[in-house]
Amino acid sequence: MNAKQQSTRAKKMTQKRTELRAQLWPDLKVEDLWNRKEHDGFTTIPRTFPHIFQIMDELAGKGKPVSSVYLSLWCRVFDESMLDVKSMEHMAFESGFSGQRAVTTWKQRMKTLEELGFISAREGASGEYSFILVYNPYKIILRHRNRFQGGKFNALLARAQEVGATDLQE
User: Fold this and answer.
1) Do 62 and 127 share a structural domain?
2) How many domains does the chain have?
3) Residue 82 placed within a domain
4) What is the pLDDT along the chain (170 residues), one digit of tens a residue?
5) What angle do CA 35, 160, 41 make, to 5 degrees?
6) Which of 47, 57, 83, 92 could form a disulfide with 102 if both were Cys (CB 3.0 to 4.6 A apart)?
7) Together in a domain, 106 and 152
8) How much is the pTM?
9) Are residues 73 and 12 part of one domain?
10) Considering only CA atoms, which of 109, 98, 130, 107 is closest in space to residue 67?
11) Cα dist. 166→46, 77, 159, 161, 169 in Å?
């Protein structure tokens, strides 16, 4: 399928979903919805993130989930795949950690993400995690493929195929 065909198909699918939405929610005000093309403050995420997060958390070990930390990083990263951490306290809070051990817990999860290869960190004014490089999670999951439940990989593979993601093809 060429680019023009893909565009035509996408427009038809959008129109069909919009028509169905209007039938299912006839009183809906469109201004009550979030439209990424009309509002600032959005980021692009893989549609497979729920699967990716399950795998990441399993790789991190029981009781030490890293997906909320990774999501917080992802929501701050731009197309260069790098972010500048201004405050570890803010990052810890965004990741869901509070209290006296918030930053310590966040740093432990960051260390795990780095050890697993999902991120790389460099020291700077904000400490050991001042600059973060975020790698393609599909590539990292492929490296760890034999370290987590096969059913999770198969589910990720199926969803990736469904949404047209080709990053898992070896």
Assistant:
1) yes
2) 2
3) yes
4) 788 888 898 899 989 999 999 999 999 998 888 877 787 888 889 999 999 999 999 999 999 999 999 999 999 998 899 999 999 999 999 999 999 999 999 999 999 999 999 999 999 999 999 999 999 999 999 999 999 888 999 999 999 999 999 998 86
5) 25
6) 92
7) yes
8) 0.86
9) no
10) 109
11) 12, 22, 11, 7, 6
